[in-house]
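Subject: sequence -> structure tokens, single chain

Hey, anyone have a minute? Need the predicted structure for the following. Not urgent.
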Amino acid sequence: MSHSICENIKQIEQEIGNTQLVVVSKYRSLPELQEVYDFGHRHFGENR
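Reply:
Had a minute. Here:
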């Protein structure tokens, strides 16, 4: 699943261009969030 998260992020960034993507971490595991962080994202949102 985590591979598809990073692929989705890449696709979204290509489609929307020059914007800031905020990754929503709601109900995601720490390993999933760590992979997205390692992928280079630093803007996270949380709402539970």
